[in-house]
Each structure stands twice: as C-alpha cells, then as structure tokens.
Amino acid sequence: MVRVAVFISGGGSNMVSLLDDMAREGHAGTPCVVLANSANAGGLARAAERGVPTAVVDHRPFAGDRVAFEAAITTALEPYAPDMICLAGFMRILTAGFNDEWAGRMINIHPSLLPKYKGLHTHARALEAGDKRHGCSVHEVTATLDDGPILGQAEVPVLEGDTPETLAARVLVQEHRLYPAVLRRFVTGDRSPLLLQS
C-alpha cells in the first residue's frame, strides 16, 4: 500500500473526497496522516472522524522562515512514514528544497485549467477573460508554482450570469471527482493525463 499524507489549511473538502475514496476496497493508497498548518483547520476533525491520524505544524511561529517551517513538517511526518503527499487546499508555498525532496511524490489540485490562471482568484480571472470553459487540474508539484506535469483536468462550462462564487461551486464538484480519480491512478504508477467531462 502507498502511504498518503494529506496537507490542508481549512475545511478539507478535497481531503474528505480523497479519504473516502481510499477507504473503498481495492484502493492501492492508504491515508497515514492529515497535516494542517493551523489547529483551527476544520478538516482536522473530519479526518479524525474517519480514523485518520492528524498533525499540526503552525506556520505562524516561524515568522517567514519557510525552511524552518518545512523542517518542522518533516519532523512531524516521520512517525507516519508517508510515501507521498497530496496538497488539498494547503495555502503555503513550499520551498524548492522541500519540493526536490518530494519530487515525483507530491501532487496538488488547482482550481483552473492549467497552464491558465496560476495562483489565486482563478474564477474571477476566468470570468474577466470571457472564458467559455473553466475547471480544475491535478498536477505534480515542482519548485515553480502551479507548474508541474498535469495529471488530470475536469472542465465545466462558464454560464451566462456566473459569478466567481457560482463558478467556484461548480468547479468544486469536479474537484471532488477529479482528485480521487487521479490519486487512484497515481498510486499504481499511472501518470497519464486524465480528462473528466462535467
């Protein structure tokens, strides 16, 4: 079994979709820990409800020292011996050193059809650009933000009258489909891109 650590910063809805899928019979991955950068992350309770161990490494005491923060993460992970990391709404940018350590073993979900709209405010940016299609991507994590090899994408139509909030809600439904589907393949060694239609 591939031991999977899931990193979160908030409510963890994508984390829940991953944990629930890994609980299904025949999955080659198993969650070993859910790690958050805040003890207030709502997803911690949701992970505990599912019997998954949790850990917290608060970024605030490190005062911008990302290397020290990541060293604390590495120490926190050691008892759980993860084989890979899934970033699921983890709102911290990781250094090149951490990314290199986990190269080929760390994936992320991003709310746009990469390479479009790296970074934040993706739904508003898609609307401002007049896009007819929007969606989400799962990619390998590299030292460059939202730039690793794409492992899967799911598209949604942009509807007349959409707001960033309505578009985000529709994309989130697809995130919950896409991320588990990509992880299920990834833990078996299949890294061919997956395209889901809404």
From TrEMBL:
<comment type="pathway">
    <text>Purine metabolism; IMP biosynthesis via de novo pathway; N(2)-formyl-N(1)-(5-phospho-D-ribosyl)glycinamide from N(1)-(5-phospho-D-ribosyl)glycinamide (10-formyl THF route): step 1/1.</text>
</comment>
<feature type="binding site">
    <location>
        <position position="108"/>
    </location>
    <ligand>
        <name>(6R)-10-formyltetrahydrofolate</name>
    </ligand>
</feature>
<feature type="domain" description="Formyl transferase N-terminal">
    <location>
        <begin position="3"/>
        <end position="183"/>
    </location>
</feature>
<feature type="binding site">
    <location>
        <begin position="91"/>
        <end position="94"/>
    </location>
    <ligand>
        <name>(6R)-10-formyltetrahydrofolate</name>
    </ligand>
</feature>
<dbReference type="InterPro" id="IPR002376">
    <property type="entry name" value="Formyl_transf_N"/>
</dbReference>
<comment type="function">
    <text>Catalyzes the transfer of a formyl group from 10-formyltetrahydrofolate to 5-phospho-ribosyl-glycinamide (GAR), producing 5-phospho-ribosyl-N-formylglycinamide (FGAR) and tetrahydrofolate.</text>
</comment>
<comment type="similarity">
    <text>Belongs to the GART family.</text>
</comment>
<keyword id="KW-0808">Transferase</keyword>
<dbReference type="GO" id="GO:0005829">
    <property type="term" value="C:cytosol"/>
</dbReference>
<protein>
    <recommendedName>
        <fullName>Phosphoribosylglycinamide formyltransferase</fullName>
        <ecNumber>2.1.2.2</ecNumber>
    </recommendedName>
</protein>
<dbReference type="Pfam" id="PF00551">
    <property type="entry name" value="Formyl_trans_N"/>
</dbReference>
<feature type="binding site">
    <location>
        <begin position="12"/>
        <end position="14"/>
    </location>
    <ligand>
        <name>N(1)-(5-phospho-beta-D-ribosyl)glycinamide</name>
    </ligand>
</feature>
<keyword id="KW-0658">Purine biosynthesis</keyword>
<feature type="binding site">
    <location>
        <position position="66"/>
    </location>
    <ligand>
        <name>(6R)-10-formyltetrahydrofolate</name>
    </ligand>
</feature>
<feature type="active site" description="Proton donor">
    <location>
        <position position="110"/>
    </location>
</feature>
<dbReference type="GO" id="GO:0006189">
    <property type="term" value="P:'de novo' IMP biosynthetic process"/>
</dbReference>
<dbReference type="GO" id="GO:0004644">
    <property type="term" value="F:phosphoribosylglycinamide formyltransferase activity"/>
</dbReference>
<dbReference type="InterPro" id="IPR004607">
    <property type="entry name" value="GART"/>
</dbReference>
<feature type="site" description="Raises pKa of active site His">
    <location>
        <position position="146"/>
    </location>
</feature>
<dbReference type="InterPro" id="IPR001555">
    <property type="entry name" value="GART_AS"/>
</dbReference>
<dbReference type="InterPro" id="IPR036477">
    <property type="entry name" value="Formyl_transf_N_sf"/>
</dbReference>
